[in-house]
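Contributing new records

If you add data, match the layout below exactly. Sequence lines come first and carry their own label; structure lines follow with theirs. Keep one chain per record. Anything else will be rejected by the validation script.
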Amino acid sequence: MAVSTVLAQSAAPPTLMHLYPVAFDAAGEPVTDLTMADFKISDQGKPVTISFFRRPRNGPPAAPGPMEYSNRPRGSMQRTVAILFDLMNESQPNRMDTWHAFTKSLPQLESGEGVYFYLLNLEGELVPIHGIGPKAADDQSWPKDVAEPLDKAMKAYSHARPAHMGQEDQVKKTFHQLEVLANQLAAFPGRRDILWITDGVQNVYNTKLPCNGDWVDCALYVPHLAVTLANAAVSVDPVSYSRDLASGVSIHEGQFKSYGALQPKAGASDAYGDQQARPQGAQGTDPSRDLEQMARLTGGRPYFRQDIREVLKQVSNDAVNAYEIAYDPSTASWDNKFHMIHVTCERKGVRVLLRDRYYALPDTRPALDRQRAALVAAYQSQSDAANIGLRAKLWPSGKAVHLEMRINASDVLLSEQGGKVTGAVTYLLSDLGASGPLGDPSMQSINLDLTKEQHDMVMKEGIPISQDHAVGDAVQRVRLIVMDQSTNAVGSLTFPVK
């Protein structure tokens, strides 16, 4: 059946806002047993209804059997991190201090898996020390040998900043390279973070308009950056080793002693306290607050003078302990403006950390085009997507394989109506040869209409799909792609058949 025919049979899903809060108790320990009823959300001051809720996926994975595969072999979501050592926005003394700190701390990492390392040089160019690429993905021991290439690069790029580069050029180049990294990270499954090693955020303001807000509201080019990072689902965690950012530490000193991040305020939507109490507009002079604003914008954390190993440890912990919440802001709410999000937790003593705003850029594409784009992106991706958990077991039989596939039901939006639980998914199977896809994929739609007992069963065992799939002589692997028709969320799993 043709892709357009299958998709046209499904209802058009709304554009949902996805949040990934991490909850902590009074001692700073993660809280992972909250329910949907524990969260209250408002968007621009108006309460919203949660459409989708998922607890942290941090349980141990079931051991795969023979000829059995999963897109979550470790049970929890993976994390991928790009460290961006920003020479352009650091002073010369801080560059030197950070350089020497990295040559000592990075080689002590237990593993460099899922971690990449770049410099942003004084011309605003990305310089890969351990860049994203097929060879780098398999090199987990690169931190042991990082000192020599880092020393070589630092000696080559530790010169004066180009005299012709003005502040606006500096801002545009910085934001552009953050977006370049984010778009590269978008190909990886799980949580994606940029650890931005910098002294502060440069600001360029529209002088023709009055500004009484903060950096996000007042600075130019921030909306484009915000949309790019949100589309790539990338958080930015500013990390500063500057001795000049005393105010950024003193405000919250000691509250997150293990990692030096800022402690969430009880009941607040983020880790940074009451935003109205600290306006940061065009007159602001404290760069630490701008770093906080970048973290608030993207759902990351700011770190001040923390060892990079401890920062990476916290990012990994956040990836494991994050909830997923989605709500429908309504079509009229996508109005080309920044929207403030406020989240409170009903459980006493629990604090939450997450992004506090988003830029409401409307997606004017028809619903069918949005669905098709989600499937095409998964189809063309070099890696599998894990937003929907998938398992497959196969039995080869001559020119075909028998497939027993399971979809993680907790990753699919299911609605209860009249005592029944309903939902719908689209799935396709694509044959892959030595050089890529072969022929057209097969595609099917599954409408779920479950009793309470059936719902309880699929929540435990997964949504089953059983199918015989013919494989020609050139077929080496098969990719299963599943899309939730209610959210456009996609999961994929590639497995060998020979």
